[in-house]
Amino acid sequence: MTRADRGSGFGVLGSGSGTRRASIRDRRGSRLPCPEPRRRGPAPAVAIAVCLVICALATLSGAQTAPPLPRRIVSLVPSVTETLFAMGAGSRVTAVSSYDNFPPDVAALPRVGALFDPDVERILSLRPDLVIVYGSQTDLMARLGRASIPLYVYRHGSLADVAIGIRDLGARIGMADAGRTLAATIETAFADIRARLKGASRPRTMLVIGREPGSLRAINVSGGFGFLHDLVELAGGANVFGDVKRESMLVSTETVLARKPDVIIELHYSEPPLPDALTRDRATWQQLPGVPAVKAGRVYLLYGGELVVPGPRVVLTAQTFARALHPDLMPWGK
Amino acid sequence: MTDGSALAGATVRRRLLVWVPIFGAVAFLAVIGAPLIGTTPIRLARVFDRSLPFADNVDAQIFFIARLPRALAGALVGATLAAAGVVFQALLRNPLATPFTLGVSAGSALGAMLAITFRLHLSFWGVSAVTAASFIGSIGAVAIVYALARARHRGFSTNVLLLAGVTLNSFFSALILFVQYLADSSEAMRTMRWLMGDLDVAGFGPIVASLPLCAVAFVAFAWLPRALNLLSLDADAAASRGVNVLRVQRVAFFSASMATGAAVSLGGPIGFIGIIVPHLVRLIVGADHRVVLPAAALFGAAFLVACDVIARTAMAPVEVPVGIITALIGGPFFLWLLVRQR
Q1: Which CATH code, of 3.30.70.100, 3.40.630.10, 3.40.50.1980, 3.50.50.60, is assigned to A202-325?
Q2: Smallest Cα distance from A243 to chain B, Å
Q3: Residue A289 touches partner B, C-beta closer than 8 Å
Q4: ipTM > 0.85, yes or no
Q5: H or E segment at B261?
């Protein structure tokens, strides 16, 4: 592998193809112009000196910004852990957060805390060459920065950001091709869902991401921002709270009655309960008989840890949502 | 406090006759008016239109399922916390005492946290496991505090009661943090939300469930005022005037604690009501408990119902936790009153 094609090329000096002119490749691999050595002018010695300085700088910057490929990765973000495994980089994952539970391989890996309680000592003791942190973990970033440990900073974004993030991560760990392939798979699956649902009606959908079990108190729903909202829209629904530019919000029973959702999808991040408990919990919505979704029996309780993880399994979530919203167009068997 | 404990009977009667109807009217108007206010326009004619089936009448559903239970829950919780605040301040002879001072709310919160974290899915006629667990937690806290207050004294030491309560509060708070820490992030969010108070009870079940305990407590409160007047000055003086101090203390402690437990399990630990309302009412009607207690209960009901209207309309369709509203309104208002009084 040459330096120029080593993945993302972090400011690596490449040779100009067919010309003597130098160029610098930026993060995306495209060339940036570089000062051209003067052809005329002072003594050749100066030109040689300038070239030497440029070469020295290039060597230095190369050493700083293109570290060796990470082989001991610590991931504090479950969605990134899943992505790493899905790209085939699972063997390089050395430790994960305490919230990680997928894929099953992570069960054997050491745990180093999570979003609010990262165990810095344990992270350092594992001698990682890349730590994946969440964007809000500024203290952790500062401490790991002092130890000169390379970081990859991740933040949840929109649904489109899932594929973008996967490509970026692939490039960062030297698996750009795997990243591109995985991202393309996800985008193809999304396109397939869009194609199937093209022209279909868009039922008014309320996505419930939490409430008090056994009652309709503290109903937490997805607002019109974030990947869960995007999933509803992708799956052919119209989020009844799409006008509220928040990721999540608490709503009252009055608001639920007033917004009249045709479909209610409720996410539970646990294993499904026993059938009678499930029936009982679903029947809780009967307290609001005027809601069209309740009247039509279109309240779906979905169970599974993957539902709120914006990783590669987001495709499964999108398909599940689409089946709930459009059972005629997206049969459950497929 | 503007005057002594025992006013002349005529003065008390006059104040009772003036202020209690006024506060009663305010509370009544709040409970009747609150269901009419909201972000969704509803027509009263349609609400009470019997010709429409209830399942198809969204206006009636908004009125009877969403708004009226909230107003009633707010009135019950507000009245209970305000009255319990008055009783605790007299019992502990401490103007800073609140219904939450003796650890009842912390015990209640711990119960709710455990139910949320361990995902208890049981529910009985609209009363969820969280509500039931929070009430059990409050009973546990009351029992521990009472046992501690009795342990070293043959009587009933209010000093030990206060110290035990404050310590238990801190201890339970630490346990709550520990349980929250063990919970995953979505449950931690829910526990945090519970601690901010919520009156959207979605039906009459939870109100009916907490009503008997509150009713019993209010019967006890009706019996207490005269004794509390004497007790809030000095226990020995009260005893010399023929008050059975131990019995009064016990009744006051248990009735106020049980009422607080029922209120917190219904609406969450909504702060400030139990301290602001009693003081505010005292500034208006004087310190005699025969007037303060009913006036505080009525004004507490009106105040919380009004705060809840703000909670559900201020940022609609986003719901603001009512505990935040009571604190935001109550705190500065109370400080302003204090400054103005001097």
Answers
A1: 3.40.50.1980
A2: 10
A3: yes
A4: no
A5: helix B245-267
